[in-house]
Amino acid sequence: MKLLFKQRVFSWLDSYDIFYEDGSVAYSVKSELSFGHHFNVHDNLGQVVGAVQQRVFAFFPRFDIYVNGVQMGTISREFSLFSPRYNFDFNGWRVEGDFMQWDYSIYGVNNEKIADISKELLHWSDTYVIDVCDPQNALYVLMFVLAIDAEKCSNN
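Below the sequence we write its predicted structure tokens.
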């Protein structure tokens, strides 16, 4: 299952639209005005189904992932000299790839592929393709991509 992740160009706060391959809306993401990044993920009916919230008083960027108000995991940036490294505290997932160029994959505990993420070039706004192997993981993968995108934007 592929999702197209597009940042809205004309918006006061960060907001994104996520589309299915057929062009229909899968999710919309709206940022809240707060210290640190805070995103609410809405389903295609407008209901909040998830949230990504940055912990502001952490030495390295750290984001908590919530589904229906329950904390499901954390993503944190780890110390590294040359390329970014992240620690995923969620179902034993791990990430491999090139974060600087936005081409990476998420793998599960048994080395099974969860998703591939890649950035599309030549668009007015940030646009990513999220290829999720199991549609049940789509919301979780989307929230991890949001957290990594927010962390990269904070560093720039």
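The chain is about 10% helix and 50% strand.
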